Amino acid sequence: MDKKLLMRGSQVIGETAIRAGCRFYAGYPITPQNELPEFMSGAMADLEDGTFIQAESELAAINMVLGASMAGARAMTSSSSPGISLKQEGISFLAASELPAVIVNTMRGGPGLGNIAPSQGDYFQATRGGGHGDYRTIVLAPAHGQELADLTEKAFEYADRYRTPVMILADGMMGQMMEPVVLPDPINLAELPPKPWVLDGADGRPGRLIKSLILNTMEMEEHNWKLARKYEIISREIAAAETYMTEDARFVVIAYGTAARIAKGGIKRAREMGLKVGLLRPVTLYPFPERVIREMSRSVKDFLVFEMNTGQMLDDVKLSLEGRSTVHFYGRPGGVVSTPDEIAKVISSLYYRQHLEED
Amino acid sequence: MEKVVFKRPKYMKKAPFHYCPGCGHSIIHRLMAEVIEELGIGEKTIGVPPAGCAVLAYDYFDIDMGEAPHGRGAALATGVKRILPDRIVFSYQGDGDIAAIGTAETIHAANRGENITVIFVNNSCYGMTGGQMAPTTLLGQNSTTTPGGRDKDRDGAPIDLSEMLAITRGAVYIERTAVNSIKNIRKTKKAITKAFKVQMAGLGFSLIEILSPCPTNWKMSPVDACKWIDEDVMQTFPLKVIKDETG
Hints:
Chain A is of the alpha/beta class and 359 residues long. Chain A has helices at residues 9-19, 35-46, 58-70, 81-96, 123-127, 145-162, 172-176, 217-238, 257-272, 290-296, 313-321, 340-353, and strands at 4-8, 22-27, 51-54, 74-79, 101-107, 138-140, 165-171, 178-182, 209-210, 241-244, 251-254, 277-282, 284-286, 302-307, 326-331. Chain A has twelve helices and 15 strands. Chain B has a seven-stranded mixed β-sheet with strand order 2-1-3-4-6-5-7, sandwiched between helices.
């Protein structure tokens, strides 16, 4: 199926989730992502084996997902920043119990109630685990409609493959925008790899146990290292980034999601002015594509990190570069959305200040 | 020929209970294992243990078990049951778990009429953490956080969670029993059986609240603890069928 459809972002996530075999959704209303649960309520009702529950709270929703995942379902929940804070308990338990699940965060301005405008203020929370304890969450950062589909499909695949929660980190802009997309074909649930750990009744086998309590410190330590080894494998296997006009670039902007899209517009304008500028867009935020950035530092001595926050991914860029290049920062927190012209101005002023036009 | 008069139920593991002497959990575990065996549902039952003393229930039940975060048993059980509607799903929760931190999850699961069974063990204190005030602690009862006894003006009065749940439209069967005497233990087993049968018939939400002794935190002998349930706890939490819409 390669038919191009014009679809709203939240609908793309929902429809792709169903096609990727999601059969359980629980969520709680919060702006700016209500279109997703609304879509899921109808889509699940159309399926013979679909479940949609409007939960009494974010906590209940994530714990319902925990239960559905234990029972073997591809399960999903979604929310926006303040709601994701509430879900962190369950996300920690999912990671600890090694259970797959997909969580969509349509980020809004914060901290606190903040506002309902697009923001990237939850980068730290998403990429550092978010809840309590020593764990990580796979974080995928779509930047356009097609990628909402591609990464939603991947999110379910990664969650099952690594038995770990996967977060799709989007923002209000992406959820609302209508764009042409080609959706993936629906999968055949029966063809998915078996899950030999599922709780479905101990029929003809000993009872199974899914838990996160490990009182023995040596066993807990071993479990922590087991998770750490898993995150290493994940880092090796799925770290991804897109590059744009970087071949001859002397100055590279690093941005993700909506910010990357705006940056692309700024870079086009800067190129028209004759500046050798490119874009590096992390597609996975955890694992962070540090190798690509480090390799680029051989030819690029100036990077600009652009985020819709006061500087969060900035830390990961600096850690990746290990002091090899100069890192500049431009941030617009609070739900403010920059324009490509604004980014072009920031780029050109830094470009000339660093005398990059000279050789 | 030897006649077997007492044996380990089929779905109990061969493991000694870690519970304190005189604790009600071991009795309730055994009753549940007997009921699961008698109803022939051991191969299709999934249990959800709580955070609290009974978190280690999975060490004793030889069935599928999935541990819930503190208070979230009913939400987690909802997820399991909705995916596997032909299995039997129960959550096992203490009073702090179900009537304080998990109140919302419990009320809404009951109100939605989730076809699950909840075993609510009421020992009127937080046992595992060392005997702090629970939502069910009696007025005047000593705990490590109610110096001089629970005071209504300072600490609030005990909460009647089962009665509250009974007014939800989705709750079908709710009964309060106790395990402080042979007679009450037998009644508890009957109540658990009925609750599971309600679920097997697909009727909706069932919950059995079980008054259970905690001699360690009550600082009583097991015998006195059982007596105290009769004389004091039942004044606040009377044994009765609170709701029965199985008719």
